[in-house]
């Protein structure tokens, strides 16, 4: 606990050592193999177009002898971009077809323009202080808005904030002062009067983004390594996010069961308790796909073991759970108990796979098992070894792993590994100080790849606490130790939205809150919102009040059941969005701004969110509240529960008794839905209902995706992608259904297309060459057309 000594005046040292060195004049330029080197009087700039829209800029001071080639996370395209270089009296110009970088000779500052000559960014000269920490300032204005930066506290718009990137285990309440949490994703989106760009600082040491301290600039800095950034142009935030994820990778399709509702607690203490929880879900008919095993499942916290007394027969338990449609996901931390009789520790020591100091001493730190060693995941051999150890779990029938404490968290003063540990980094050694933020991601990579090798074609699932840019390739992210505070329910929305804008589409908080004690009301409200988050897990802390959906009596239980069931019904819609995320990198949970970029009311709106582009949720975020203002952007919206038609472009006061989370569907929405299942492992229905919210005017479309949800067969083409394209005019609706890809045989066999709010009375419904039935409920304005899917493309014409 801190007291006032924390703000003692003697502690007010100079915040930053004087930045006394810069690159000086840009003097000469050499260009070869798509790389331009600008030799400056006191260092070097390397400029490279990675794509037409992405420029990599690396700055090195004259004294920097480090061979820096990047953190290793960037996926470089195979083909070099044709970059043109030009010298003028005052500047060098390097350009692609989309961007132009002007490097000013006088001070090596850079200005970046788009192809129309519109200024996108102005970068002041790179500077270094006496500690060799590099910093760079970019111009901003009072209209600048900032997004992404991964998992941060605060609101959606990061203007006026400062954050650090240093993976940290923060158990204290997550509050706005906390500049660094578990994930470090040094990627920023800058939006200014319709102009947008992204900035990815590829540096896994400690870095900072300061949008607070300077009126006309924001500052990006790194304590170690080279200043190496990727400037990402694009015409919209969507474009920039898509390019950024092209650079750092996109999520792979997870097993569909990992999109179901997940139940956790620190800890379900033994086999009986786990089975009781599982059976209770089934008895109460609350859908559930996963139960987590927290640290008590292990034998004295030794990873890759089960406690023989608490869990005498894990294989049988896992089998019985599978029969109930429930998967087990056990926790695996990186700390390996120092115990010479423990196989994993012995192997790690004998094969030199743990993190060591330069002098050869293995780093030992205290975590749950007491003194522990930590695998060096930057080393391929250690990663493979670790991954293969997961055979222990896969042989028991486990396909999902929960990576925790992988910042890494250590119970010492620095809260992490000693900074002078030297990671092997496959032959390019880096100190822990330089590589800290990579550790957690490399653990999840090793885990994902190890599971993949051992699952005979089944898809692995990994969820992690720590990560770096690119973590989405290997794991879902949960946002760590939040608390059962209403404020943390509210905070979880911008946090997950910004994670989504940072490439991490599969994310969510501990629903109900981890530590402190939830209440029935808070659990109900959090489950309502959380049921639409991509990662949906209820987790709570040792000794906190129980928070399973039934813990607070029948009313709260029924609310939880309703919203979890809603998630399961919407799964075809959500899974299609997950597919989209895997292809384009766009988030599943979206800030309204992403879909309505021209509406200034949305720059910082984050007490509402969109699921995809058409479903808008406005959760209740305060106790004892049964009304709230909801801002509906331009267009027509429908209340999901009552069907009421609402005009957008303004606020509405919405009634939200405890059982209701305000939920709206945008006109033009196409929402595929499935019959309710208790588990996504159960066979899916051959029938799909597609709700189409008619608009009477606009054209709209949706890609419905399906595959077996379980294996990697989709990578061989075994999937279906059905494009649904709707064209409307005042007395006609035409729906074109077109399988863009159709190689998955067990897909849906029958579609019920429900056209809602049809603005006219249909006199003719036609589907060429396809037997069909239809029914029109005139009072409700709902036309239902039923037909089989034995087509490649079909057109439904409805004429009024
Ligand atoms: C950490 C995790 C938490 C977990 C606990 C015990 O605090 O963040 O989710 O329950 O460790 O493993």
TrEMBL record:
Q: What's in the keyword line of the UniProt record?
A: Glycosidase, Hydrolase
Domain spans labelled Glycosyl hydrolase family 31 C-terminal: 585-671
> Domain Glycoside hydrolase family 31 TIM barrel spans what residues?
252-577
| PROSITE patterns assigned to the protein according to its UniProt record, in alphabetical order | GLYCOSYL_HYDROL_F31_1 (PS00129)
* Protein's name in the database: Glycoside hydrolase family 31 protein
Record keyword Hydrolase present: yes
GO MF annotation: an example: hydrolase activity
- Which part of the chain is the Glycoside hydrolase family 31 N-terminal domain? 45-210
Q: What is the lineage of its organism?
A: Bacteria, Bacillati, Bacillota, Bacilli, Bacillales
Outline the extent of the DUF5110 domain.
Answer: 687-746
Q: Which CDD domains match?
A: GH31_glucosidase_II_MalA, GH31_N
Task: Give the family this protein belongs to, as stated in its UniProt record.
Answer: Belongs to the glycosyl hydrolase 31 family.
Q: Does the keyword Hydrolase apply?
A: yes
């Amino acid at each position: 606990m801190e007291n006032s000594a924390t703000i003692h005046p003697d502690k007010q040292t100079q915040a930053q050592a004087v930045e006394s060195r810069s690159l000086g004049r840009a003097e000469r330029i050499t260009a070869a193999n798509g790389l331009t080197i600008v030799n400056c009087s006191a260092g070097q700039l390397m400029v490279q177009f990675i794509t037409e829209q992405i420029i990599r800029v690396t700055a090195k001071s004259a004294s920097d002898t480090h061979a820096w080639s990047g953190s290793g996370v960037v996926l470089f395209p195979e083909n070099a971009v044709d970059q043109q270089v030009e010298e003028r009296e005052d500047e060098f110009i390097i350009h692609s077809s989309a961007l132009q970088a002007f490097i000013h000779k006088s001070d090596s500052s850079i200005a970046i323009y788009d192809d129309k000559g519109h200024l996108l960014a102005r970068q002041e000269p790179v500077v270094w202080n006496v500690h060799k920490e590099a910093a760079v300032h970019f111009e901003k204005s009072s209209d600048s808005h900032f997004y992404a930066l991964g998992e941060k506290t605060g609101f959606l718009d990061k203007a006026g904030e400062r954050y650090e990137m240093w993976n940290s285990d923060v158990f204290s309440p997550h509050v706005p002062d906390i500049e660094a949490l578990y994930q470090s994703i040094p990627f920023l989106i800058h939006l200014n009067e319709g102009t947008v760009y992204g900035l990815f600082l590829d540096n896994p040491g400690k870095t900072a983004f300061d949008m607070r301290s300077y009126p006309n600039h924001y500052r990006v800095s790194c304590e170690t390594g080279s200043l190496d950034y990727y400037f990402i142009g694009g015409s919209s935030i969507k474009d920039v996010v898509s390019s950024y994820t092209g650079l750092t990778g996109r999520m792979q399709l997870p097993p569909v069961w990992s999109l179901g509702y997940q139940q956790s607690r620190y800890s379900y203490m033994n086999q009986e308790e786990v089975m009781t929880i599982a059976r209770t879900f089934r008895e109460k008919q609350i859908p559930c796909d996963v139960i987590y095993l927290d640290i008590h499942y292990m034998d004295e916290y030794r990873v890759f073991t089960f406690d023989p007394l608490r869990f005498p027969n894990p294989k049988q338990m896992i089998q019985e759970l599978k029969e109930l449609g429930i998967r087990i996901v056990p926790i695996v931390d990186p700390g390996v108990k120092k115990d010479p009789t423990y196989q994993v520790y012995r192997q790690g020591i004998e094969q030199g796979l743990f993190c060591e100091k330069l002098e050869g001493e293995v780093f030992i730190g205290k975590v749950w098992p007491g003194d522990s060693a930590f695998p060096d995941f930057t080393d391929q051999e250690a990663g493979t070894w670790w991954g293969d150890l997961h055979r222990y779990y896969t042989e028991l029938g486990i396909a999902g792993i929960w990576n925790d404490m992988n910042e890494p968290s250590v119970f010492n003063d620095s809260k992490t590994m000693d900074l002078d540990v030297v990671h092997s980094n496959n032959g390019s050694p880096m100190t822990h100080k330089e590589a800290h933020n990579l550790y957690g991601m490399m653990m999840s990579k090793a885990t994902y790849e190890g599971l993949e090798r051992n699952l005979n074609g089944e898809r692995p699932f990994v969820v992690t606490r720590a990560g770096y840019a690119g973590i989405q390739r290997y794991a879902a992210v949960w946002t760590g130790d939040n608390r059962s505070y209403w404020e943390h329910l509210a905070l979880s929305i911008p946090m997950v939205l910004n994670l989504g804008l940072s490439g991490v589409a599969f994310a969510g908080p501990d629903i109900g809150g981890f530590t402190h004690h939830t209440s029935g009301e808070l659990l109900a409200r959090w489950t309502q919102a959380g049921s639409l988050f991509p990662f949906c897990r209820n987790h709570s802390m040792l000794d906190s009040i129980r928070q399973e959906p039934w813990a607070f009596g029948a009313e709260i239980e029924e609310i939880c059941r309703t919203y979890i069931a809603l998630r399961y019904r919407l799964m075809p819609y959500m899974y299609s969005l997950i597919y989209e995320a895997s292809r384009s990198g766009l988030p599943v949970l979206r800030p309204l701004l992403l879909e309505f970029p021209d509406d200034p009311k949305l720059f910082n709106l984050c007490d509402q969110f969109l699921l995809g582009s058409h479903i808008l949720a406005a959760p209740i975020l305060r106790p004892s509240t049964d009304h709230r203002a909801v801002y509906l952007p331009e267009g027509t919206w429908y209340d999901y529960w009552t069907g009421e038609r609402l005009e957008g472009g303004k606020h509405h006061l919405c009634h939200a008794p405890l059982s209701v989370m305000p939920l709206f569907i945008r006109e033009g929405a196409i929402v595929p839905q499935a019959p309710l299942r208790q588990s996504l492992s159960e066979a899916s229905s051959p029938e799909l209902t597609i709700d189409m919210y008619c608009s009477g005017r606009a054209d709209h479309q949706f890609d419905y995706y399906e595959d077996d949800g379980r294996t990697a067969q989709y990578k061989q083409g075994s999937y279906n992608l059905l494009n649904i394209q709707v064209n409307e005019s005042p007395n006609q609706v035409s729906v074109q259904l077109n399988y863009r890809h159709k190689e998955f045989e067990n897909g849906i066999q029958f579609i019920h297309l429900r056209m809602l709010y049809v603005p006219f009375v249909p006199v003719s419904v036609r589907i060429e060459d396809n037997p069909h039935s239809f029914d029109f409920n005139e009072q409700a304005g709902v036309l239902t057309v039923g037909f089989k899917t034995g087509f490649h493309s079909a057109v439904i014409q409805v004429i009024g």
